Amino acid sequence: MLKTNKYYFIPVVNVDGLALIEEDHMMNPKTTGILDKRKNMGPNGGGDECKGPAEYGVDLNRNYGIDWKLNLAEKETKCSEYYAGPEPFSEKETQAIRSFMDSHQEEVRFVINFHSNGNSFMWPFNGRSPNDIDKRAPGVLPIMT
User: Fold this and answer.
1) How many angstroms separate the first and last alpha carbons of the chain?
2) Nearest Cα to 66, choosing from 83, 88, 94, 98?
3) Handedness of CA 41, 80, 114, 99 (dihedral sign)
4) Which of 117, 118, 123, 139: CA 20 to 30 A from 11?
5) Which candidate, 15, 77, 144, places its Cα nearest to that of 134?
6) Residue 51 in contact with residue 79, Cβ under 8 Å?
7) What are the backbone angles phi and psi of residue 59, rounded to the nearest 5°?
8) Helix runs in the chain, H state only
9) What pTM, to 2 d.p., does this model score?
10) What pLDDT sits at residue 77?
């Protein structure tokens, strides 16, 4: 597979959120807990109404164009950990991923995400019910399963 395919690895998308977690750990090295931060530190979310850095920013997982309006009430609450931003692709990070995918659309066949927040692997369309991966990407489900 390595000889016949091309693989792209994007190790981190939420760079500033990760930097905050690392900074918090460096300041509190004896703590066993890790700062619970799933959103970026972008200016689109929070402001004075949110309490602390964990509530600032936009949940990048929910800032993409597909399914952006699902659960809109939750996404409109800026301090919610699931705040999707003021509009799809409002964040630099999701714009960069969209640009990467647009420029490599002829090469990319499927995407696997590893989310350190939750230690889970996610594959395309696994959040949908019913899961229509067989219609959208025939043959991928057996591989992922």
Assistant:
1) 18
2) 88
3) negative
4) 139
5) 144
6) yes
7) -75, 105
8) 15-27, 72-76, 92-103, 133-136, 140-144
9) 0.76
10) 80
Q: Could you count the other beta carbons within 10 Å of the beta carbon of residue 34?
A: 12
- Lookup: tokens for 83: 């705040």
Q: Report which residue type is found at 54.
A: A
Radius of gyration of the chain (CA): 17
Tokens representing residue 109 in the block: 């066949």
Where do we find the tokens 């799809």?
88
Supply 117's token pair.
């927040």
Structure tokens at 144: 């992922």
